[in-house]
Amino acid sequence: MKNLKKKTFLTIFIIISFFAIFFATFFNVQTYHREYIGILNNLTRMKNLTTKRPEIFDKEMKPINDDELRNRKVMDYEVYTFILNDKNDIVDKISHSDNDISDAIITKAKNIIASNNNSKVKMGCLYLESYAYNFENNNSLTIVNIANTRKMLLINLLISILLVGVLELVIYFISKKITEWITKPVVKSFDREKEFVANASHELKTPLAVMMASIDCLDVSKKNEKWINNLKSESERMSNLITRLLDLSKTEYLKKENFSKNDLSMIIEKRALTFESLAYEKNITIETNIMEKINFLCHKESIDELVSILIDNAISHGLKNSKIKVNLTSDKYQIKLQVINKGDAIPPCECEKIFERFYRNDKSHNRKSGRYGLGLAIAKNIVLSHDGNIKAYSKDGYTTFEVKFKISEH
Hints:
- The protein is of the alpha+beta class.
- It folds into two domains: about 1-150; about 255-405, Heat Shock Protein 90 (2-Layer Sandwich), CATH 3.30.565.10.
- Helices cover about 55% and strands about 20% of the residues.
- It has ten helices and twelve strands.
- The chain has helices at about 1-50, 65-70, 105-115, 145-215, 225-250, 265-275, 275-280, 300-315, 365-370, 375-385; strands at about 80-85, 90-95, 120, 130-135, 140-145, 260-265, 285-290, 295-300, 325-330, 335-340, 390-395, 400-405.
- It has a five-stranded antiparallel sheet, with helices on both faces. It has a five-stranded mixed sheet with strand order 7-9-10-12-11.
- Strand 9 and strand 10 form a beta hairpin.
- Helix 1 (about 1-50) packs antiparallel against helix 4, helix 5 (about 225-250) runs parallel beside helix 10 (about 375-385) and helix 6 crosses helix 8.
- The radius of gyration is 40 Å and the shape is elongated.
- The two termini are about 25 Å apart.
- Mean pLDDT is about 80; it is low at about 55-65 and about 365-370.
């Protein structure tokens, strides 16, 4: 259920965030493009005027004189034209706005002329440059002061980033609300399913106990011995299944107020010792590497059950004459428990599925050993109720079940 909520939240959050970022990007791109075209148009217009000198005539056009160039005004930008002679010396300076030509502009013009031997239009990135120019070798130089444009674009960009940041916070809370609304029916259905399983298990427990007691009271003869033994066997299997279902229900409703500080090292050490006799039957040895005195706020019985499930699973699926390692370590931020055994590898596609209820990879093996695919589901519930995570993976012939708990004090 947590994974469903997480995926739903991320999907909604990403979709809404995409549109917010898209519109902010679109606005800045459009503004940048408009300014870029405006500057380029001014450079081009001045180029056309300066290239049509008084000596040039056209049949359909009157001769262009310097007055037209001098009187051309630009409202949105500071545009300056420098008329050059054949030696690229400045012979005239024209301002096409209300601004006077400053020494900084003249210096900039001289530097451009000195560093360029060929005609060149330079715009650059409007977020970085202060000037754009059009240099016509042996003719003219047009400079546009784009410092104000750069400032305006940077302010727009900064405002957009801040707005997107604020919108992301709003989108976060909106996504949470929408997620709760969407998953509410699913949560209710899931809770009803869990409640049904728990109630059904409770209701079945009593009549099953009566049936098992009644079977024990039956007279056994050669004729009915086979059938009575079958009844006993299947009744015991059903009893075990109901017990596991009740265990599963209990772990789904663990409450933090029932947690207490416990010596996790001691719990795991004791539990590993109790499984040595079972492991001995398969010539399996259990090796422990447990850091001492690791205190952890937990539900003691549930943690004991978790360790039992993992070690029992390792023995069941471990090879004969092999070794099981139980490692417990801790640092400032987390506690890590590992149960490692040598045996059949878990396919990568099933590393998540094995924690699902009633999931069994080897159904024939599980049926013979009286397993129902609930142990690892119970283990996962216990880990999640302690705000931890559990995973399984196989590598180089070894299978590892790894549990991590966060240390709340840090």
